[in-house]
Amino acid sequence: MKSPILTLLLVLVAAPFLASCSSPGRKPPAAPAAVKGGDGKSVIAAESDLNEYSAVSVADPLEPLNRATFWFNHGLYMVVLRPITKGYDKAVPKPVRTGIHNVFENVRFPVRFVNHTLQGNFKRAGLETGRFFVNSIAGVGGIGRPSDHIAALANLPEADTGQTFAKWGIGHGIYIVLPLLGPSSLRETVGFAGDYALNPVNWISFVYGGYAWTIAIPSTNSLRVTHEQLGVYDSATKSALDKYLAIRSSYIQYRQEIAKK
Amino acid sequence: MNPRLLLLVPLLLLHGTAFAASTAEAEKRLQGAVNEVLAAADAAPSVGALAESLDPILHKHLSFDAMTRRAVGPGWRQFTEDQKKNATRLFATLILRTYSSKFTPGERAVIKFLPATSPEPGRYEIPTTLLYEGSHYNVIYRMEEAEGWRVTDVVIEGVSLVANYRSQFDAEYKKGGANAVVGALSHSVNHPK
User: Are A41 and B150 within 8 A, CB to CB?
Assistant: First the structure.
């Protein structure tokens, strides 16, 4: 995923699949849901609303392989990553973790700037630039987030390469579970490669490759992201009937929402 | 102005007033429910104790009947009355457990209510922002009028609780009909992981 040639190859391979995906989630109901009951009170009409939701669907021709990768990842999260992130949680006090989070999010500025621009949203790209300078200067290298106190900069929507592809009308293609990285699709895998290339955290190893600290910085970033995502993973899988389907459905719905922003 | 149009004005005003009144009612109901949940979360010493105190609160404010039925989909028609009752009871237990496990004792949630929208009469979507343990989440509550206002879905960052189970129930139903759905629910409730 690090090589631009691999990215290009993925795009070429992906092209025939990228149009086919649907994730309807909730349909508008055909009939009003509330009717008057016998006592004149309003009740939610039974059985007139059974088609209101449809199963979130995405082409998954690799399901057996994806399930195997999913369970491999699950084991890895439980046995290896969870103890590491717990250690991170205990060893690093919360204010420091927040500072680390803020710095990495601030440095990710090019991912958001380039994608807002590619989506034709120049106003957001401008606001992102403003936020980057405010947090870098007044937030001391992005440790603090003073932009939260400026209404125009406080809640800027996220932007990433997968979202840009979605806004260009490219479908998910097929669902893919990536080893270690988790749920994705053909479109989002290519998007991830784009985000990876645009994130300055990953430039370090290209420029100064070979030194131990060049591994330490991206690793800290991965640890931070894993720490945040394990919480979400737990919520989605803890009460699931089928963990694989729960994550697939949540992921497709989540990316659909991101594409709307 | 055309006199016919003039006749329309009071009707439109009335419609607007009715909309505002029911929006306020739905919002008030949701705010009340959220306050009850937060008070229970503050008072509970553990997640287990919280699940117990949340049980009557969620049953009062959520329509588990509608949520279960919609999560199962058209296959619901093939369920016997007993299977419907069992599925609803087990699904409620599962949701209650998911909901209570999200709270960490001692952490306070800050919730901001945003203006509601009405996709159709009798239904509201109330967007909120939730700040919890340093992270922001966009949470939409879908509400319907049924013996008062009830929550029929919770959508967190675009992920609908009901749609999420719809995919899972669908797979179970295709495997073995109503029995498979009830069996899978029962297995999840009895083997929490």
Answer: no
Query: Are the beta carbons of A165 and A7 closer than 8 angstroms?
Result: no
How large is the ipTM? 0.82
Closest-CA residue to A201 (of A103, A116, A118): A103
Where in the sequence is the domain holding A158, given as residue range(s)? 58-260
Asked if B122 lies within 8 A of A54 by C-beta distance, the reply is no
A43 falls within a domain: no
User: Residue A63: which residues within 8 A CB-CB, separation 6 or more?
Assistant: none
For residue A171, being part of any structural domain is answered with: yes
Percent of chain A having pLDDT more than 90? 49
Lowest-confidence segment of A164-178, B10-24, B66-80 by average pLDDT = B10-24
Backbone angles phi, psi at A51, to 5 degrees: -100, 10
Of B123, B146, B166, the CB nearest to A53: B166
Nearest to A53 among B73, B171, B184 (CB): B73
- Residue of B61, B94, B164 to mutate, interface with A, max A Cβ within 10 Å: B164
Residue of B nearest to A98 (CA): B134
Q: Are A44 and B152 in contact (CB < 8 Å)?
A: yes
pLDDT tens-digit readout, B117-144: 988 888 899 999 988 877 778 899 999 9
Which residues of chain A are within 8 Å of residue B146 when distances are taken between CB atoms?
Answer: 34, 42-44
pLDDT at site A4? 41
Q: In this structure, what token pair is assigned to residue A196?
A: 């990876």
Which one of 3.40.630.30, 3.10.450.710, 3.40.50.360, 3.40.190.10 gives the CATH number of domain B3-190?
3.10.450.710
Residues in CB range of A253: below 8 A, 6 or more apart: A23, A25, A56, B158, B159, B160, B163, B164
Separation in Å, CA of A82 to nearest CA in chain B: 15
Q: What is the pTM of this model?
A: 0.81
